[in-house]
Design goal:
single chain, mainly alpha, Four Helix Bundle (Hemerythrin (Met), subunit A), Oxidized Rhodanese, domain 1, two-stranded parallel ribbon, 8 helices, binds protoporphyrin IX containing FE
Length: about 180
């Protein structure tokens, strides 16, 4: 079964490469559509609307990683317009900054992948069997990776989406180290 799925994936990637050579606009739109579709599943899992599935979470991160790696190639100068692109002109005006966003995205994905199934960091934080973990960060975005990591280990977890931004505005108590 696994072999069939992997073979299918290889064919899909091959098709994308062929398309990129001829039509970068269609290819980047198709790549981003894949990212959008994967995100819909990931956000349903994060919200608890569908049961958490660790293998699916890894697949989603893999879709992101492939996109972050390949998208660089799909913005040649010749593709500023045409093909119903919605890409902003600033992409080419400040191309280094645009490319850096893909690099930063790739780094975030790598960090999220490393956290998945990392039982030791939860143990080190004092999490015991049966505990419910509340995760937070600055504005609730990076904490989503920790939420998925906890659920991948079967640890019950909730996201404090207001995170530190809201907590500090409410003057909530803070422990220093
Ligand atoms: C999880 C993160 C992301 C999601 C869910 C997402 C989703 C999407 C979707 C749904 C589209 C429309 C595709 C279509 O027209 O059918 C799109 C287009 C686009 N995205 Fe993303 N995206 C993500 C990350 C990024 C990042 C990190 C960048 C840049 C650094 C980026 C740059 C673009 C650009 C430039 C387009 C327009 C392509 C064109 O019309 O030529 N996206 N994205």
């Amino acid at each position: 079964m696994m072999r069939i799925i992997l073979a299918g994936a290889a064919i899909a990637v091959g098709a994308t490469v062929v398309l990129a050579q001829g039509d970068p606009i269609a290819t980047r739109k198709q790549t981003m559509k894949g990212v959008g579709d994967a995100t819909k599943i990931g956000s349903a899992m994060a919200k608890g609307e569908v049961p958490f599935d660790a293998a699916k979470a890894k697949e989603i991160l893999q879709v992101y990683a492939n996109a972050a790696d390949k998208m660089h190639n799909y913005f040649p100068e010749s593709s500023k317009s045409g093909g119903e692109t919605t890409a902003a002109p600033t992409i080419w005006e400040n191309n280094a900054a645009f490319r850096k966003r893909f690099d930063d995205w790739a780094a975030d994905i790598k960090a999220a992948s490393a956290q998945t199934n990392d039982a030791e960091s939860f143990k080190a934080a004092g999490v015991k069997a049966g505990d419910t973990v509340i995760v937070y960060c600055h504005v609730g975005q990076q904490a989503t990776a920790t939420l998925l990591a906890a659920r991948s280990l079967g640890i019950e977890a909730r996201l404090y989406d207001g995170s530190f931004e809201e907590w500090s505005r409410l003057d909530g108590p803070v422990e220093g180290k």
